[in-house]
Amino acid sequence: MSTFGLRSGDGMSDPFDLRTAALVTVDAAGLIESWSREAEFLLGHAPSDVAGKPLSAVFQGPDALVAMVEGRLTADHWEGRIWAGHHDGHQVELGLRLRALPAPEGGGGWLMALCSATALHRWELGQAALRGLLISSPVGVALFDTDLRCEWRNEVLAAMDGSPPSAPAVRPAAPHAGERQAGQALAVGEVVSSVEHLAPPPGTRSQSIMEQPLRVRMSLPLRARTGTPLGVCQVVVDFTDRDQRRRRLVLLNEAGERIGTTLDLERTVGELTEVLVPQVADFAAVDLLDGAGPADDIPAGSGKVHGTLYRAAHLSVRADHPEVVVEVGQPARYPPQSPQSRCLATGRTVRDAVVSASTDWLAVDPLRRETLVRIGVHSHMVVPLRARGVTAGVITLLRWEHPDAFDEDDQLLVEELAARAAVCVDNARRFAREHNAALALQTSLLPQVLPDLTAVEVAYRYLPADTQAGVGGDWFDVIPLSGARVALVVGDVVGHGLHAAASMGRLRAAVQTLADMDLSPEELLAHVDDLVLRLAYEAEMASDGLAVIGATCVYAVYDPIARKLCVARAGHPSPALAHLSAPVEILDVPPGPPLGLGGFPFESAEFDVEEGSVIALFTDGLIEASDQDVDTGMERLCFALAHPDRPLEEICDTMIRTVLPDRPRDDVAFLAVRTRGVDCDRVAAWDIPSAPSAVAQTRSDVMAQLTRWNLQDIAFTTELIISELVTNAIRHAHGPVTLRLIHDRSLICEVSDGSNTSPRMRRAHSSDEGGRGLFLVAQLAKRWGTRYTPHGKTIWTEQQLPEQDRNVSGQR
User: pLDDT at position 295, please?
Assistant: First the structure.
């Protein structure tokens, strides 16, 4: 057998090659005629030592030599092993190839080609390996000449190609893949390899990439000893269905890349079905147990089913999904003896080899029986989705186009896929559970219903960002203040998640508490700044190491009587003011540092506001939402606020369409406020002399004003309240004393003086003549309190109006 150009000395070259072997000629009488130099090197005998001597002088046996000498060797050649005596005296085992040398006159002789037994063994081993590779192994081999004609192919390759081994040595008009690769190897002079997925024959069912024939083809250029190209040797290895472990690893690797790319539950189960169909089954459905809490999960092997299965996803090899009985999102109800119920109860895979009309569990489910029998389902397998010790649902697999039933290898493969997918499903469910909890927390911390006030009309939009963090720390608020005023607040805690939402709730509560104290905007922000510093310190001392990085806030107070807006901000964008007869203005509020830095002062600014104007307060997520810079965001915001006479809801909708992208990267809080004013005829004020006699005149003036407002029903209580407050101011305070009545949705009484002394209620004894004034005021008024001004303080009360007058006031 040819060695196809193998190099000499590599153990594969013919050891009896006449160019390299030790040669000895023997005449017909068995006498040595010639002795080559290689023979001398092999056995140590010089030609002169052995010339004319019989073979037996050097060689011992075998019988072939005796038969040769005696003329009884019937064949003209013989090959085997013999022993020879070395010149040094020891015996040497040799390989021998013997051929007859005919002579024209008769007699003739013999040619002996000798080699060492070791070289013969290596050669025989190599020949056996070549025979095994070309004939016995499952590897296809073909030989092409330099014209790319197939000179020879073994039976294995012929079976792969569907042609006889002795193919005609002609080059086809349209070369196939093997010939093209052979030509490439011949052209480049190097080994060329490729992996081939063969398409199924026409008319057969579509196959997944795992079922398609997979072949590895290599073409090796062949050269003569001189380096001249002789052709190409092509080797083809068919891996189809030869290595189940490879099939499993490839599919598992694909599953690892495709399943769980997001934390969206719907997408995760959809990715699982895409991996299973058509690689494993013709149809796959994922049914999950409803509920997202741990108590709703089913422990494996519990024997009980808690909750209801619902269809989360399904996929079929057919676009019309003829096997679907339950639509996605609908409850998936199975009989108690069904494979799905048994799988849930035991936590183990249920594999039915045959599905037919006589199948027991289908007898009580006629709809499924008719569907499965109609499309010809012959194999059915249900695998549990289990992760972290609980069963979250089941995977149902069907086969009808695939000819084979589910076997143990399929079961092991799907169980491993299910185990990996179940972790992703569990992660998605846990994320959804935590995400919903965080959103519920954040929603509960925000205003549920904004107050209906005379001073302002309010609309808002709160848009949580679509991020994995789920929630952030943006908040807004509208807080009623004394004197018909209103506080407007928008803030943003840095960061996302539950920690930011919880911190936001604490800051919102603090702002509401400080607002009730009627602090000025800059003073309120200073107190909130101290709170953020304290929260950050507490968080750093906690074991979790979480810290409030900081927050921003804008706080504004609108006075509908003075038509003024006082604003202070801490690292937050300035509000925008949409005038009725002028362009939209970004208010020039002195910039303050973000909350949580400490040690920096805050400043406020006051602005005149025309009644009917629109004030917009917002978080930076609004103006930074687009891909443009902040200036572009501000321009879009001003455009959305143009024409403030439109309804506020329309303004908010325009803002969303104009400023925000479809998926904002940060939470957005937007507060649109239309200002109103309190008419001057609903406000009355008096300067009161610092004399006790002024109390009586004041009562008289108040009674007259209440008569003009048609509030005689509350005149008596108002008279008592005014008497107590004015008397206290005259007796215990100093400076000018003023009284102001505001007819709003309640009757507001304000007594101001130049003292900073805080009034307080005290427990009066039965023998005391005084000390019951504020106690009496607190009993008569709906609300009361004190606010401090740059020139002193103001004690205010609010009284409930009669029902009829209250309705009229609310309609203004």
Answer: 36
- Give pLDDT, residue 529: 92
- Cα 83 from chain centre: 77
Instruction: Pick left, alpha or beta for residue 269 (phi over 0 → left; psi -120 to 50 → alpha; otherwise beta).
Output: alpha
The answer to whether 648 touches 459, Cβ cutoff 8 Å, is: yes
Give the DSSP per-residue string, 128-144: HHHHIIIIISSEEEEEE
Determine the Cα–Cα distance for residues 771 and 752; give it in Å rounded to an integer: 20
Sequence-separated (6 or more) residues with CB below 8 Å from residue 230:
5, 145, 146, 222, 223, 224
Phi, psi (degrees; rounded to nearest 5) at 121 = -65, -45
Give Dmax over CA atoms of the chain in angstroms.
173
pLDDT given at position 170: 47
- C-alpha distances out from residue 716 to 112, 692, 719, Å: 147, 20, 5
pLDDT in tens, 193-249: 888 766 655 544 544 444 556 788 899 999 988 888 999 999 988 876 555 566 677
Q: Estimate to the nearest angstrom the gap between the alpha carbon of 675 and the chain centroid.
A: 46
Encoding tokens for residue 673? 């406020």
What does the pLDDT read at residue 569?
96
**CA dihedral defined by 797, 798, 802, 804, rounded to 10 degrees?**
140
Model-level pTM greater than 0.85?
Answer: no
Q: Transcribe 632-684 into DSSP letters.
A: HHHHHHHHHHSSTTS-HHHHHHHHHHHH--SS-SS-EEEEEEEE----GGGEE
Q: Is 168 exposed, middle or buried (0-12, 13-18, 19+ CB in 10 A)?
A: exposed
Q: How many angstroms separate the CA atoms of 97 and 780, rounded? A: 134
pLDDT computed for residue 199 by the predictor: 60
The residue among 140, 130, 161 whose CA lies nearest residue 6 is 130
- Taking 70 as the pLDDT cut, the residues of the chain under it are 1-12, 61-75, 106-107, 162-175, 197-213, 240-247, 291-307, 353-358, 465-472, 497, 542-549, 625-628, 661-665, 760-773, 804-812
Please count the other Cβ atoms lying within 10 Å of the Cβ belonging to residue 153. Answer: 25
The amino acid sitting at 792 is G
Amino acid at residue number 422: A
Q: Which two tokens stand for residue 480?
A: 């009623």
Q: Which two tokens stand for residue 703?
A: 């009674």
The answer to whether 239 touches 197, Cβ cutoff 8 Å, is no
Q: Which regions of 583-625 does DSSP assign to beta strands (E)?
A: 585-586, 604-608, 614-618
pLDDT of residue 7: 42
